C-alpha cells in the first residue's frame, strides 16, 4: 500500500502526510488535532511561542486527540544588533507606523532562552515528534530528545543540508523545495544557491541519505503526493493546503488572499522578517523590497515589523500583512480537514488503480 512505509512506522500514523508547523497562529489546536485524528501528523508551529503558550497548546491538543502530533521549533539565530542600522530601517517603516498608529518597538538582543525552554516543555510533555527549521540542533539537544524517544525531523533545502541533518542524528529529513510557502529552511548556503525545486531536490536527497525523506513545496493534492512518492520520498509535508482549511487559525484576510491568488502571485522576500520567505506580493513588499540589502537579519527585522503586521490584520489591511503562501495556491480550497484528506486519499487510490502505478 502507498501509505505504508518507514515514515508511517516511525511516526505511528496511518498516512505519510505531515501538516507543516507554520508559526504565527495558523496551527490552532483545532487544526493540529483534526489532522492527527485523521491519521496524518498535525504539528504545532512554535516558532514565536513562549514556553507557557506552547505548553497550553500541547495540553489543549491532548484533550482533542490521542494520536501522535509534533512541535516545530526554530533553531535560534543571534545576530548582532546594530543601532544605526535599526534607526535607518525605522525611517523606512515610519509611514506604515503612522498610518496604523503604531509606536516604535524596542529591539532586544536575540537569545536562545525561549528555544531552550521550548525543548524542555517538549520533553516534559512527552510530545512524540519534534521538528526543526533554520538549522540543526546541537548534539546535546538531539541526545536529550532521543533519550525521551522523541522522533526528530530536520529541514533541508539542499543535498548538503540533508546530509548534515542525517549526520547530527535526525530520524527523518524534510526536503523543502523552492515552491514552498513561508520561510526557507536554508542554513548552509545562500538563499540564491538553495532555490531548488521540489522535483529536482527530492530524488537527489533520496540518493544521498539513508534516513526517510519527506517532500515539501507546492504539494497540494493527491497528484502531488503520489509524484513525491514516485521520486523516492516516503511522505510529504503540506503547509499552504492547510492554511485555508476551516480549522486553520490563519486570519480570514490571509485565507482569502490565498484563495484569490495565482501561481505567479508569490515572491520570496526578506522585507517582513529579514529571512527569505515566500508570500503573496502586496504593497508592503513593493515599497520595502528596494531596501532589502539594508535590512537587519532575522529575527531583528521580524521584531521591527511584527507590530505593524499585527495591527494591519486588526485594521483589515492585507496590503501590509505577511501573506505566506506557496506556488500551488490555485489548488487551495476552503474546506474541512476531513474533506481535504478524504479527497486526497481517494485521489491517490484512483490514480494507482487507473494509471497502473504499483507499490
From TrEMBL:
The keyword 4Fe-4S does not apply. One of its GO terms (molecular function) is nitronate monooxygenase activity. Transmembrane segments: none annotated. The keyword Flavoprotein applies. InterPro entries: Aldolase_TIM (IPR013785), NMO (IPR004136). It catalyses: 3 propionate 3-nitronate + 3 O2 + H2O = 3 3-oxopropanoate + 2 nitrate + nitrite + H2O2 + 3 H(+). One of its GO terms (biological process) is response to toxic substance. Belongs to the nitronate monooxygenase family. NMO class I subfamily. This is Probable nitronate monooxygenase. It comes from Candidatus Pseudogracilibacillus intestinigallinarum. The lineage of its organism: Bacteria, Bacillati, Bacillota, Bacilli, Bacillales.
Amino acid at each position: 500500500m502507498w501509505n505504508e512505509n518507514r515514515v508511517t512506522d516511525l511516526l505511528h500514523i496511518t498516512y505519510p502526510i505531515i501538516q507543516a508547523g507554520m508559526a504565527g497562529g495558523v496551527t490552532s489546536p483545532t487544526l493540529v488535532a483534526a489532522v492527527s485524528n485523521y491519521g496524518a501528523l498535525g504539528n504545532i508551529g512554535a516558532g514565536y511561542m513562549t514556553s507557557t503558550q506552547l505548553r497550553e497548546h500541547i495540553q489543549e491538543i491532548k484533550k482533542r486527540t490521542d494520536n501522535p502530533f509534533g512541535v516545530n521549533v526554530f533553531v535560534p539565530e543571534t545576530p548582532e544588533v546594530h543601532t544605526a542600522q535599526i534607526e535607518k530601517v525605522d525611517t523606512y517603516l515610519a509611514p506604515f507606523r503612522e498610518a496604523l498608529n503604531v509606536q516604535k518597538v524596542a529591539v532586544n538582543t536575540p537569545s536562545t532562552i525561549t528555544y531552550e525552554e521550548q525543548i524542555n516543555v517538549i520533553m516534559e510533555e512527552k510530545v512524540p515528534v519534534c521538528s526543526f527549521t533554520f538549522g540543526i540542533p546541537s548534539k546535546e539537544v538531539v541526545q536529550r530528545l532521543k533519550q525521551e524517544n522523541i522522533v526528530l525531523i530536520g529541514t533541508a533545502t539542499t543535498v548538503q543540508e540533508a546530509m548534515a541533518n542525517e549526520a547530527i542524528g535526525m530520524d527523518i529529513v524534510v526536503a523543502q523545495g523552492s515552491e514552498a510557502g513561508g520561510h526557507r529552511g536554508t542554513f548552509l548556503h545562500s538563499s540564491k544557491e538553495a532555490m531548488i525545486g521540489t522535483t529536482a531536490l527530492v530524488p537527489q536527497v533520496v540518493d544521498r541519505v539513508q534516513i526517510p525523506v519527506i517532500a515539501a513545496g507546492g504539494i497540494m493534492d493527491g497528484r502531488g503526493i503520489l509524484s513525491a512518492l514516485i521520486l523516492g520520498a516516503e511522505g510529504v509535508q503540506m503547509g499552504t493546503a492547510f492554511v485555508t482549511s476551516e480549522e486553520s487559525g490563519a486570519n480570514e484576510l490571509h485565507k482569502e488572499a490565498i484563495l484569490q491568488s495565482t501561481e505567479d502571485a508569490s515572491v520570496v522576500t526578506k522585507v517582513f522578517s529579514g529571512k527569505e520567505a515566500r508570500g503573496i506580493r502586496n504593497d508592503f513588499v513593493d515599497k520595502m523590497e528596494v531596501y532589502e540589502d539594508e535590512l537587519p537579519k532575522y529575527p531583528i527585522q521580524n521584531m521591527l515589523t511584527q507590530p505593524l503586521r499585527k495591527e494591519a490584520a486588526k485594521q483589515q489591511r492585507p496590503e501590509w500583512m505577511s501573506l505566506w503562501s506557496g506556488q500551488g495556491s490555485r489548488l487551495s480550497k476552503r474546506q474541512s480537514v476531513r474533506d481535504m484528506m478524504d479527497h486526497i486519499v481517494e485521489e491517490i487510490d484512483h490514480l494507482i488503480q487507473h494509471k497502473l502505478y504499483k507499490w
